[in-house]
Amino acid sequence: MANIPVKKSAHPFDKTRFEALLNRRFFYAPAFEIYGGVAGLYDYGPPGSSLQANIIAEWRKHFIVEDHMLEIDSTIMTPAPVFETSGHVARFADWMVKDTKTGDVLRADHLVKGVLEARLAGDREVRGLVAQLQKEDEKKKKKKVAKTTAVQLPDDAVDEYEAILAQLDNYSGPELGDLCRKHDIRNPDTDNQVSEPQQFNLMFTSSIGPTGQHPGYLRPETAQGHFLNFSRLLEFNNGRVPFASAQIGRSFRNEISPRAGLLRVREFTMAEIEHYVDPEDKRHERFDEVRDVVLDLLDRDVQTSGSTKTRKISVGEAVTSGVIANQTLGYFVARIYQFLVKIGIDPSRLRFRQHMSNEMAHYATDCWDAEIQNSYGWTECVGCADRAAYDLTVHSNKTGHPLVVRQALKEPIVTERLVAEFNKKVLGKTFGKDAGVIQNVFAELDESRLLEIQIELANGGSTIVTTPDGRDLTLTREAITIERKTFKQSIREFTPNVIEPSFGLGRILYVLLEHNFWAREQDIERGVLSLPPLVAPTKVLIVPLSAKEEFDPLIQEVSSKLRKAGIFSRVDDSNTSIGKRYARNDELGTPFGVTLDFASVQNRTMTLRERDTTGQLIGDIDQVISVLIDLVNGTTDWADACKLLPAYDGIQAVD
Ligand SMILES: Nc1ncnc2c1ncn2[C@@H]1O[C@H](COP(=O)(O)OP(=O)(O)OP(=O)(O)O)[C@@H](O)[C@H]1O
Predict the structure, then answer these.
(1) Do 385 and 488 share a domain, yes or no?
(2) Residue nearest to atom 7 of ligand 1 (CA)
(3) H or E element that contains 382
């Protein structure tokens, strides 16, 4: 029956056909292709651009609108001192190795991963073959096994490789070098040995202005633009935290050897949130709304034990048990999950992996990556880190500009403490230039030392202080007195902590396409992209069955009504069969099609087709449009639509 939803994938994922589809329909393609292209640079074509725009539109709604975030658009070109202060100049680097004969450059951790995974895959192949040949005699078995080029590994090597892969991100450069030597890891393209790992900074350098005096960098993330504008943003938010800033924009990283299509590129669009929170109160006021969201978590301890087994746990439980460090971090992890699933990521192939201690930036307190499984393995698509107060503190220290929150206290804090009071006249006359030195020494003294000095002055009339350069100076009661004073503090000043969800849109777009690609049993050559209406580049295809002029007013009417409802449609009045027109649009992920035939002209009826089931319904044009609007907006689904409109099993009369 046409209207019953079909199981999506009748075939295993076919990467060759998938890539051919993306290329043929120009979702994206290598940039500068006619000049030979440059690795890691891609241009998006019409469907890719629309898909990205729709993902961004939903991202804005889901994060910015929903949580009243402050959106900014800061510059890409950044003067060098900013990245010197942030630590990027010293540390934004990956480890690379060189092929000792050809000089080819490879990223060290990717090399180890690729080689060990290939060896494990080979091992599985041989073991599988041996199991299959169980019943055959030994001679035949040996012969068949000898035919494969794959190698079976000793059991302990399998365990060791798996343990290495489970914590690959935890290794330092020298440790990766040790692994290459110990396991004879070579360049797989040439079988040559590789050099010791060296650090390579991923930022593209530039210079600002004609003289070259102002070195700059293309930003590798959008975050610094948020931090440098913090005091303005805080003022915009009436001086209160928590609040978040958000930014969508381009970032640039000179990746060592980008080989995984859109997953590792040198120029990409990021969407980043910096949520500023009181370090003493990281609760989130909307946490209860996400408390019951269940996630697949892969925590630090599990990885360190050499396993990659996730566990299902609610965000509420994860935060209460301390697996996720605080409510705000938990809130964002859950919101990231909801966003990814809403746009069409398969939740069974989505996990959150906690950073291991060496992997995490030294200042971060906790960090979780949303990793999505695809044909390249598990790929980080969103990072979510608690960056503590690091960024605001370093920029504030460097520039002298306070990047702090000043909060009026409800109850002023009253404290008493001993303070040194100087008679400046006597001090100046007696000690000259050392007067300032003495005052600085006293400013550093703690309460117990001040008490000792108070007693000394009361008993003997004098005390001795030692200057930083080791001289002992005698001060009398005429120059100094120590008194207990009361202080009232009505303002609390603090540097907020920052929770940062950071999205790479190209990676999300690519895995989304993979997760939604399949082929129909009867037409394996052509693919279908089951993109949710929310993000599909075109929502409705209008298919007139005849090129006759009498169809024109109806086409105009339907497209104008859809346009007015904010629904993006396209007319396909090409000369091919209706089946081909639908198939072409299945490849583009267009979820619905409406067909105008002669009955439409006579009786104002229109058929409605759903992409995944190929089911068709029929109804009055306005009724179909009304159902369509609900379908596209997600307020109804196809099963409900089937209750509202009768099924159409007829064959349309083609002119
Ligand atoms: N070279 C790249 N190409 C495409 N997207 C990227 C690239 N580097 C980072 N991203 C995206 O930006 C997000 C945030 O960047 P982040 O600095 O956390 O990545 P990363 O840890 O450096 O990634 P990786 O370890 O894969 O290099 C990532 O989750 C990813 O989606």
Answers:
(1) no
(2) 264
(3) strand 377-386
Same domain, 344 and 422: no
List the domain range (segments joined by +) for residue 106: 94-197
Ligand 1 lined by 268 (C-beta under 6 Å) = yes
Is 382's pLDDT higher than 50? yes
Considering the domain architecture, whether residues 246 and 371 belong to the same structural domain is answered as yes
The arithmetic mean of pLDDT across residues 130-136, rounded, is 76
3-class SS at 604?
coil
482: its two tokens: 């120590």
**What's the pLDDT tens digit per position in 568-579?**
999 998 889 999
Question: Which of 459, 484, 506 lies at the terminal end of a domain, its last residue?
Answer: 506
Q: Is 261 in the pocket of ligand 1 (CB under 6 A)?
A: no
CB 353 near ligand 1, within 6 Å: no
User: Are 285 and 363 within one domain?
Assistant: yes
Which helix or strand (DSSP H or E) is residue 121 part of?
helix 108-132
Question: What does the pLDDT look like over 384-394, one tens digit per residue?
Answer: 999 999 999 99
Same domain, 346 and 254: yes
Q: What is the pTM of this model?
A: 0.86
| Biggest CA pair distance of the chain | 117
46 Cα: distance to centroid of ligand 1 (angstroms): 25
ipTM of the complex: 0.98
Whose C-alpha lies nearest to ligand 1, atom 25? 380
Alpha-helical (H) ranges within 188-271 are: 223-228, 230-236
The whole-number pLDDT of residue 653 equals 42
Atom of ligand 1 nearest to the CA of 265: 3
